[in-house]
Amino acid sequence: MTAAVIGFVVIAGILCVTAVFALLGVGQIALSGADAIERDGLPRGQRAPRWSLTDSTGIIRNSPSDRPLQLIVFADHSLKSFPSVVAGLRELSGIEVVILTRGQSGGIGQLGLGDIPVLAGSAALYGAYNVRVMPFAIFVDSAGLVRASSLVNHDWQIAKLRQVAAIPLDADEPADPPRSRVTSAV
């Protein structure tokens, strides 16, 4: 009888471990691939998280900005692997551009981006924006609404996002849909 109970417990344990691995596998599949990356960022018309951070020169930067459009670039030292994106950032004018890192700014200042401020963000702030991959760009208007967002690998993608950001929000686009995420980070 004791052997039967031990056998039952062992088989039940193996089945539980198998079920956990199956759930983790399904979760991994859901979080990887092109479909998952398409869901990164915040949708157009949604309210972006508010924050105030000090840049690498000691100036306090805010989002949303007082300017009509602000481009928040989520990037780290790997931005040097995307010279076309760096060129696209250099070509932007008339909007505030900030680079938000996940921590240390490590080497971004050496990319020749001139006076584009580099801000040390956090994993929580990246999570509030739903950003997992870099470089990622989000245009936010002065009201704090997302106007365009996407993963960017080339300068033309930044130019296209700026064009999309300039398109007025449609009446059928929600100005501030309900959110279940953190809406503020400092």
How would you explain this protein's 3D organization?
The chain has 186 residues and is an alpha/beta fold. It folds into two domains: 31 residues; 123 residues, Glutaredoxin (3-Layer(aba) Sandwich). 33% of the residues lie in helices and 19% in strands. A five-stranded mixed beta sheet has the order 5-4-3-6-7, covered by helices on one side. A two-stranded antiparallel sheet has the order 1-2. A hairpin with a 4-residue loop joins β6 and β7. The N and C termini lie far apart (61 Å).
So what's the CATH class of the largest domain? Alpha Beta
Low-confidence segments, given as residue ranges, are 175-186
Largest sheet: 5 strands, mixed
> What is the number of beta strands?
7
In whole angstroms, the N-to-C terminal distance is 61 Å
Number of spatially distinct domains: 2
Alpha-beta classification: alpha/beta
Spell the H/E element sequence: HHEEEHEEHEEH
- Coarse shape: elongated
**Strand order across the largest sheet:** 5-4-3-6-7
Q: Using the CA coordinates, give the radius of gyration.
A: 21 Å
CATH level-two architecture of the largest domain: 3-Layer(aba) Sandwich
Summarize the entry for a quick read:
It contains five helices and seven strands. The chain has helices spanning 2-31, 34-38, 83-91, 123-128, 155-166; strands spanning 51-54, 60-63, 69-74, 96-101, 118-120, 136-141, 146-151.
Question: In terms of topology, how is this protein built?
Answer:
Elements: H1 2-31, H2 34-38, E1 51-54, E2 60-63, E3 69-74, H3 83-91, E4 96-101, E5 118-120, H4 123-128, E6 136-141, E7 146-151, H5 155-166
Parallel strand pairs: 3-4, 4-5
Antiparallel strand pairs: 1-2, 3-6, 6-7
Helix pairs in contact: 3-5
